[in-house]
Structure formats: C-alpha cells, structure tokens
Design goal:
Largest sheet: 5 strands, antiparallel
Order of helices and strands: HEEEEEEEEEEHE
Number of domains: 1
Number of helices: 2
Low-confidence stretches: 1-24, 138-144
Strand order of the largest sheet: 7-10-9-8-11
Helix content: 10-25%
Structural class: alpha+beta
Radius of gyration: 15 Å
Shape: globular
Length: about 140
C-alpha cells in the first residue's frame, strides 16, 4: 500500500512540474521497434521524451498513444558536440534496450541504468551486443 502511495505522489509531482513548464527539454521520436526502458516494455511507435531542465537526471518516456510510459533516473555521461538529439539502444538478437539519450539543445548525454532483464540477457547470450544509434534530429529541436 505504501508503494502505491509513493508512486501516485511521484506521478503527481511530475505532473505538477510539467504543468509549470519545468520540463521543456523534449524529444519526439519514431522508434520502429519494440524496446525496453528500465524493465518497462515499450511498443514500436512515436515517443515523447521529457527531461528535467535543472538536473536532467530524470527522464519521462511516453508513447504518444498512451500505451506505455516510464520514469527513469539517469546519470550524466558527458556533453555531445555533434548538436543532434540521439537515442542509443543496446540490441541482443531482436531485443532492444534504451541505453542513452542525448539532447540536441544542451548536448547533455544521459545514461539509463541497466535493467535486470538486460543483465540476464548479457549473462545468457554469447558476446555480441550491438549498439544502435537512432538519430532523432540532425539539428537541435526545442518544443515549447
């Protein structure tokens, strides 16, 4: 019961942040395959990725049809100099995991944590993870 209360409170707080405009770093991307974000299954489709502008440590990944969403804490991985928004996936066979998001406006690269499911695949599969970069926008995009 306590976990539900914490989850509801967290979603309410994040909704409040969005309503007051603290979530202005947004990426809209068409992902052509099913994938996972921190253990949450995401079907292929169009996604909105919001990042908290003050710390960029929390990402909200949401299918625009409302069929899937995830909130994930990230860690910094540096600043990109290429000036484009980019999603980086780890691929094991036909299973994809979102590993990093690069914001084309600030250049901030954010690493997502490795899920237990991905760790299990790594342990079971022969070496051969493929890294796939999905370029979202060649030029920075900012949506207000």
């Amino acid at each position: 019961m306590k976990r539900k209360t914490i989850a509801v409170t967290l979603f309410a707080m994040l909704g409040s942040l969005a309503a007051f405009g603290f979530w202005s770093q947004r990426i809209i991307v068409e992902v052509p395959f099913d994938y996972y974000v921190s253990g949450v299954a995401m079907p292929a489709g169009t996604y909105l990725i919001d990042g908290h502008t003050q710390t960029q440590s929390i990402l909200f990944v949401r299918n625009i049809r409302g069929t899937a969403s995830a909130i994930v804490a990230t860690r910094p991985e540096g600043i990109a100099t290429h000036g484009r928004s980019e999603l980086l996936f780890h691929r094991y066979g036909n299973t994809y995991f979102l590993a990093r998001v690069t914001d084309g406006v600030s250049g901030a690269m954010r690493r997502l944590p490795v899920s237990d499911q991905e760790k299990e695949l790594v342990a079971q599969a022969p070496p051969g993870m493929e890294v796939l970069a999905l370029v979202v926008h060649e030029a920075p995009l900012e949506i207000r």
